[in-house]
Write a structure and sequence with these properties.
It is built from ten helices and twelve strands. The protein is of the alpha/beta class. Pfam families: DapB_C, DapB_N.
Length: 269
């Protein structure tokens, strides 16, 4: 058992964190060696299993990332930029794989993550599911095949507790569409329309966000041309698909050369 790769879960008390704890602890190919939470959290010092309402797992929740990472080959992180960015440096020091599903990262955050990735493996993606990554590949392919006569709109829906918009997945799809068109997303993105906005600008990529209820995640990429529309769609009904993808990414990254990777690399797409 001790020879199995050890994985730390950051943000262990959250919905994704608890799901990751369960999947890692039940996976015969790895072992849970750490559960991280922010300083002052009620779960600090408790066994993560009993804190989650189940049996003991032999792993105590801690806010000491350096200590937790000393026993790990990988860390999985679905938290917030303020937690993910400093953890990247610690993961790099430990030469541990850092799997990042955190969204809401800005350009400065990404620059810091890229610097850490020079020293260790980092797998970062706006979405870890197989289906969404296949959708991303299809989006790039369709965007490359169609000219600007086809307008591109990305519509996403998530639960009412999601704090960022557009979603990381929507932005990932937008980047794929822009890549297919041979342009920079930052130059053509329309991320909010309200009031008298004027006619849609040719070649732009639009984003719309829906928030409500317990929607896990729905993404539509619409190519609207004269007389016809092509709609690519992915609907997630269980967030376990993201957790399973993250565990797969963590195990895939162990032993690889330092660098910044994404789920396309993990899935060989």
């Amino acid at each position: 058992m001790s020879e199995l790769p050890g994985i730390v879960v950051n943000g262990a008390s959250g919905r994704m964190g608890q799901m990751l704890v369960r999947l890692v602890s039940e996976n015969p190919a790895c072992r849970l060696v750490g559960a991280l939470e922010r300083a002052g959290h009620d779960w600090i010092g408790r066994d993560i299993g009993t804190a989650m309402g189940g049996a003991e797992l032999g792993v105590t929740v801690t806010d000491d990332a350096l200590d937790a990472m000393s026993r790990a080959q990988a860390v999985i992180d679905f938290t917030a930029p303020a937690a993910t960015v400093p953890l990247a440096e610690i993961a790099a020091q430990a030469r541990a794989v850092h799997v990042i599903g955190t969204t809401g990262l800005d350009e400065d955050d990404i620059a810091k993550l890229d610097a850490a990735a020079r020293h260790a493996v980092m797998v970062r993606a706006g979405n870890m599911s197989f289906g969404v990554n296949l959708l991303t590949k299809l989006t790039e392919t369709v965007a490359r095949a169609l000219d600007v006569e086809f307008d591109i709109e990305i519509v996403e829906a998530h639960h009412k507790h999601k704090v960022d918009a557009p979603s990381g997945t929507a932005l990932m799809l937008g980047e794929a569409a822009a890549e297919g068109r041979g342009v920079r997303l930052t130059d053509v993105a329309d991320r909010g329309r309200d009031g008298i906005t004027g006619a849609r600008e040719e070649g732009h990529i639009g984003f719309s966000a829906i928030r409500g209820g317990d929607i896990v995640g729905e993404h539509d990429v619409i190519f609207a041309g004269p007389g016809e529309r092509i709609i690519l769609r992915h609907v997630a009904t269980d967030r376990a698909i993201f957790a399973r993808g993250a565990v797969k990414a963590a195990l895939w990254g162990i032993g690889r050369k330092p660098g910044a990777y994404d789920m396309m690399d993990v899935l060989g797409l």
